Amino acid sequence: MEAEMSLYSEKVMDHFRHPRNVGVIENADGVGEVGNAKCGDIMKMYIKVENGILTDVKFETFGCGSAIASSSMATEMIKGKPLSEALELTNRAVTEALGGLPAYKLHCSVLAEQAVQAAVLDYYKRNNIPYDESQFKCALCAHEHDHPEGEEE
Ligand code: FES
Question: If you take atom 4 of ligand 1, which residue's CA is the nearest one?
């Protein structure tokens, strides 16, 4: 509500100030770490899986406020959900749930999408579960991208 914060929705500010599910899961079933080479921010996602359900999710984000808010929101959106649903989480859905992000901050929400996918991919690999690479496009994508609205590539 402060004037200088007007670029950000109340939800973004709330999740930035009081991030949910922060921390480390000891003995996690999957861990995903992703980073944005341009800004240097890093996000780490830990998951616990039982019978295909994400029973617990925690994150550590060394990054900007939008990245922290995005990861916090992402954990809330996938906790208790099947892995298949977690894989469908897009940065756009996270951004919408946050009430929007400024355009130049959309790439921060991409970290959340990538981190979730990376954690699930790690879980699949550890357990030798066959997976369809097309489901992990974002986590397996090696190039830097911002996923702006209407991205063509
Ligand atoms: Fe790096 Fe937001 S500026 S993730």
Answer: 108
Provide the CATH topology of domain 2-141.
Sufe protein. Chain: A (3.90.1010)
Q: Residue holding tokens 């990861």? A: 71
Domain boundaries, the chain: 2-141
Q: Is 39 a catalytic residue?
A: yes
Of 88, 49, 46, 96, nearest to 69 by C-alpha is 96
Choose, from 64, 108, 138, 141, the residue flagged as catalytic.
108
Q: Is the CB of 106 under 6 A from ligand 1?
A: no
Atom of ligand 1 nearest to the CA of 64: 2
3-state class of 54 per DSSP?
strand
pTM listed for this prediction: 0.88
pLDDT digits (tens, 9 = 90+) for 54-101: 999 999 999 999 999 999 999 999 999 999 999 999 999 999 999 999
Please state, in angstroms and rounded to a whole number, the distance separating the CA atoms of residues 142 and 131.
18
Distance, CA 63 to ligand 1 centroid (Å)? 6
